[in-house]
Amino acid sequence: MLAQYTLPEIGKIFSQDNRYQLMMDVTVVACEALADIGRIPMEAYREIKEKAGYDIQRINELEAETHNNAMAFLICLAEYVGTEAARYINIGLCSEDIADTVTALQVRQVSELLQGRLHQLRQALVKLAREYKYTLMMGRTHGTYAEPISFGLKMAVWVKEVDRSILRLNQARNVMLVGKLSGVTGTFASVDPHVETFVCRRLGLHAAYVTTQVLQRDRLAEYLTTLAIIGSSLEKFAVEIRNLQRSDIREVEENMAEGQVGSTSLPHKRCPFNSELVTGLARVLRGNALAAMEDIPIWHEQDASHILTEQIIVPDSCALLDYMLYSFTQVMEQLHVYPDNMRKNINDSVGLVFSQRVLMALMEKGVRREKAHEMVMKNARIAVDQQVDFQFLILEDDEIRKLLSSREIMDLFDYDCFRKHIDYIFERADI
Q1: What is the greatest pairwise CA distance in the chain?
Q2: Residues of the chain with CATH 1.10.40.30
Q3: End-to-end CA distance of the chain
Q4: What CATH fold (topology level) applies to the domain 2-86?
Q5: What secondary structure does DSSP assign to 291-323, as a single string?
Q6: What is the CATH number of domain 352-412?
Q7: Where do you find CATH 1.20.200.10 in the chain?
Q8: pTM, whole model, 2 decimals?
Q9: Domain boundaries for CATH 1.10.275.10 within the chain
Q10: What 3-state class would DSSP assign to 206?
Q11: What would the pLDDT profile of 333-342 be if each residue is shown by its tens digit?
């Protein structure tokens, strides 16, 4: 299944090439800011802007010597720019000034991609919600029969959860959209604050109000936790699909491609593989979120404990969620829905879904709740144990018949009662 999916956009965002390009962009704009206040000659800035470049192979060679990626990048950039102009690059700045600002730019790029995925999933869910708005299915609580809902209503619940995911992602993205160019301990001792303001405005970021040498990692923890929450919502949806596809329920089913094999030993198997995959990957996202929280504590003004962790968990989490959204959207766009089986499962309840309506009718006749509950439960247990129609038992119960007429009882067993407020719910939810 993974082989059918490629990561062109995610891969590009977190590629070496894109990161070095963003590092170069930040560096060049910082030089422009320095020239703007006369800290470096304007001619030097123009030369830096014109000649700036990098070569990934050369950076890798230099990193093998220096064991410092930022230094390797700066040396390579200097080789392109030339000795005279290169001495004005990154005056007063540290490597984290560039690295953290670049991470913010990458988060902005990837968030736009993930937002697009979320909107695509939302469209698929809205389509199902509207199509099956009035299609009744069994509602289940504690894994057992409750009262009917509509399949469209189930989808509407998911639509609003996706809406919250879209909002959460936007909020977490905004928390991350900050730049930092305040020097080695965040005091601006070696760089004018104008540089940070200039660079952030030019790049569409906000300047962090106060920092150490690094942006504080609670920001990134919030972002990756948000991705994990979105992944957990997808897992919730996927688990429901898996349950509804069970052989004893079979109300929906994932589409299987022509030639796709469900089992090497059981040719009849049709398995919810993609939903199971989403379930498993959500666990990895939550693990990555925990690692991001572990990165929040930093010794004093800076240490390097978080760097390698972030190089793994940031692109990893973004790529995982991108794939999960892609895969589950495919599930929902191609989902097989079986209304006949939904109706069959409701009928298999032998009418017990109306037990609350009978209870309420007795209470309206003045019967105390506990007594009414006992009267209904007695018949419900017989219906379950002997698989006898619940309505028939209520009609034959002399105690109940003293309070409710045959017509009143018949009117209670009306499936339209479960549909009557669906339009109101959809209107309130704006679906």
Answers
A1: 104
A2: 352-412
A3: 32
A4: Fumarase C; Chain B, domain 1 (1.10.275)
A5: HHHHTS--STT--STTHHHHHHHHHHHHHHHHH
A6: 1.10.40.30
A7: 95-188+209-344
A8: 0.93
A9: 2-86
A10: strand
A11: 999 999 999 9
Which residues are known to be catalytic? 142, 263
Measured CA distances, 62 to 71, 72, 203, 289 (Å): 8, 5, 28, 33
Question: What's the CATH class of domain 95-188+209-344?
Answer: mainly alpha
HEC states along 29-44?
HHHHHHHHCCCCCHHH
The tens digit of pLDDT for each residue in 74-127 reads 999 999 999 899 999 999 999 999 999 999 999 999 999 999 999 999 999 999
